[in-house]
């Protein structure tokens, strides 16, 4: 499988859906991907099982507030610099690139970097969606180390972090985002092919492409895009429990950039003015409550989409008065295990309630 | 020359005087130095001119709020870890250790580390006193790079910063101090012997020892310690313009730990209740104003000492009601040059007034 120029819109749209509001504006990522693919052949995509056990796979990801990404574009030089810094530290060249999260910019940037460098990208990621902290990743859940981790910014400065504790790495890296201008690029969780086979969320790059295509194709054929989206999700093994959570317009929006995150909530009212849905976010949409009752919660997916086109809307692009549909979907069992929920379940985000799968929350 | 167990009290006292309130509690540094010297022979001290041109000299320094140092002791493992990390990055072993600032803990710790590692320490530093930011150092004024810079904490994590801009290094390193627990150890400004000859403030380790001895000896012989201190300073080439700025008790003290610094001011009132001196600090004492008129200002030295024993008092040990004498002293021309004043003159600290040498401020 390869990702070429004709795939970029679909891939960006699907990555935005899986990004559940976060992961950075996919528009910027799409432009970068198109820029890379105009100069390079389509990016080869490797299935996890195709990896050599001793391959060196390096995830590349941006860190910062999505609200900054729309104002400041990081190009290829940042990704290359941070990859070279990590390779130098490891004394070995990367054999493949991977996404740490299959949401927004962080889904697209590694594919663009892979094309730019002439390396393959792995059809997998570490979240199966997007999450706001760097220990919230399946690699961590399975005991992989995020360090050595290299981070860089537009000034060309490089910071290398060494630690055996992923939560401490998050705490050390996060405050550096601010002097790095609110957004930086990092290479982290360098892993063997063997480790990727054990701990990655598989086939999520294909998943993003499929979701984006389902919406795009319906639009092209003037079919109802949400029906097409749901029909496609129901063909997947793990994301098939999906449904429309709400249909209405945004009547209240609170959003602030705090300690490098975009934090807040959106209130959506239905067109009868009778019911309200509250969606809480920290970069990503984390919980949806209809009239005070939780209808979907992390790690299950909550996406807010334009109610006509089914184009996913990121946190920083939410606007007062927008007419939207809110969609929820289930995630793979690897993301709902006890160990996983300890890292990215409701309580990890400060919600005082247990995880209830979307298929049971009706 | 060597520094042995019989020198530790004098050296710590002199380093506290030159620290002008900052550089970290010298008491902690003295304990560490004594611990090292109980197991190792006296630390050999090299004059700058004794260095080989191609020696690799590595300054080691703590960064953080002095208020934290009294609650948390960093031992030898932190200094060794950070030195080894830098050596690994440079592909070369250090041939000598140096102080970045000859104030408080940061004067003592490198001497203790040198004894512990069996390396010589250089009779010089980069400030001729203490300053609160890492670009405020003569090495920077002469164009040396602070990076690669390694920092570590009690958890064993290591952060390596690469940058060609020393101000950006300060901005990247400073916020990491907070997740590192308010205090960390760093190895920075790795330099050749040739560079040290060009840009270090010379003989400041001897200077600290001499100042500490002058006070200690007077006490032992029951002479007036301030007279002995002034008599000694007047024998030095550069610090001979010295005088008593004020004699009184602390009647007001404002001190907060802000962004990794101890920031505030002390108001000292004379015993007639007629006159007041305001000493402003950010880790170090920066400006002394008597009745609204500046009588001493950075980079000249301002030290607050116990009015009976002439023991220097650090910022974090100032107390309401303390009876103190405030002493001012001149610094070497290398510290008062135009280039130097741009980096650590009054305006670099936000004071809207020019530098006036203490000998002219009368």
Present the secondary structure layout.
2 copies of one chain form a homodimer.
Chain A: E1 2-3, H1 8-18, H2 26-39, E2 43-46, E3 56-64, H3 66-69, H4 76-90, E4 96-99, H5 105-117, E5 121-122, E6 124-125, H6 138-141, E7 149-152, E8 158-162, H7 166-173, E9 183-187, E10 191-192, H8 193-199, E11 201-202, H9 204-220, H10 225-235, E12 242-258, E13 261-269, E14 276-282, E15 284-290, E16 293-297, E17 301-306, E18 323-329, H11 338-344
Helix pairs in contact in A: 1-2, 1-9, 2-5, 9-10
Largest sheet of chain A: 7 strands, antiparallel
CATH topology of the largest domain in chain A: CV3147-like fold
Number of domains of chain A: 2
Oligomeric form: homodimer
Order of helices and strands of chain A: EHHEEHHEHEEHEEHEEHEHHEEEEEEEH
The overall pLDDT of chain A, averaged over residues, is: 94
Overview of this structure, please?
With 362 residues, chain A is an alpha+beta fold. Chain A has two domains: 2-202, CV3147-like fold; 226-349, CV3147-like. Helices cover 31% and strands 27% of the residues of chain A. Chain A contains eleven helices and 18 strands. Chain A has helices at 8-18, 26-39, 66-69, 76-90, 105-117, 138-141, 166-173, 193-199, 204-220, 225-235, 338-344; strands at 2-3, 43-46, 56-64, 96-99, 121-122, 124-125, 149-152, 158-162, 183-187, 191-192, 201-202, 242-258, 261-269, 276-282, 284-290, 293-297, 301-306, 323-329. Chain A has a seven-stranded antiparallel beta sheet. In chain A, a hairpin with a 6-residue loop joins strand 13 (261-269) and strand 14 (276-282). In chain A, helix 1 (8-18) packs across helix 9 (204-220) and helix 9 (204-220) packs antiparallel against helix 10 (225-235). Chain A is globular, with a radius of gyration of 19 Å. The mean pLDDT of chain A is 94. At the A-B interface, strand 8 and helix 7 of A face strand 8 and helix 7 of B.
């Amino acid at each position: 499988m390869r990702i070429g120029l004709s795939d970029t819109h679909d891939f960006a749209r699907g990555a935005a859906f899986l990004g559940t509001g976060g992961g950075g504006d996919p528009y910027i990522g799409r432009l970068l991907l198109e820029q890379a693919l105009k100069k390079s052949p389509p990016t080869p995509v490797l299935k996890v099982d195709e990896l050599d056990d001793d391959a060196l796979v390096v995830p590349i990801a941006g860190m910062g507030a999505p609200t900054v990404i729309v104002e400041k574009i990081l190009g290829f030089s940042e990704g290359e610099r941070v990859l070279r810094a990590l390779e130098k530290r490891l004394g070995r060249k990367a054999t493949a690139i991977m996404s740490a999260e299959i949401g927004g910019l962080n889904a697209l940037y590694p594919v663009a970097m892979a094309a730019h460098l002439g390396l393959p990208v792995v059809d997998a990621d570490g979240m199966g969606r997007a999450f706001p902290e760097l220990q919230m990743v399946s690699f961590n859940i399975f005991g992989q180390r995020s360090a050595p981790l290299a981070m860089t910014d537009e000034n060309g400065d490089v910071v290398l972090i060494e630690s055996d504790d992923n939560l401490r790495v998050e705490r050390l890296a996060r405050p550096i985002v601010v002097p790095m201008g609110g957004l930086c690029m990092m290479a982290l969780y360098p892993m063997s092919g063997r480790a990727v086979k054990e701990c990655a969320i598989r086939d999520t790059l294909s998943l993003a492409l499929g979701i984006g295509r389902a919406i795009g194709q319906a639009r092209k054929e003037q079919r109802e895009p949400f029906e097409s989206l749901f029909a496609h999700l129901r063909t997947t093994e793990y994301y098939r429990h999906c449904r429309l959570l709400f249909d209405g317009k945004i009547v209240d929006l609170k959003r602030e950039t705090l300690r490098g995150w975009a934090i807040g909530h959106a209130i959506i009212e239905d067109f009868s003015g009778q019911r309200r849905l509250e969606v809480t976010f920290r970069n990503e949409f984390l919980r949806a409550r209809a009239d005070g009752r939780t209808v979907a919660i992390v790690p299950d997916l909550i996406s807010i989409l334009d109610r006509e086109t089914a184009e996913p809307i990121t946190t920083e692009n939410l606007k007062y008065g927008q007419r939207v549909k809110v969609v929820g979907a289930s995630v793979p069992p690897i993301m709902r295990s006890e160990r996983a929920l300890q890292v990215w379940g409701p309580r990890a985000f400060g919600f005082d309630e247990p995880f209830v799968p979307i298929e049971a929350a009706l």
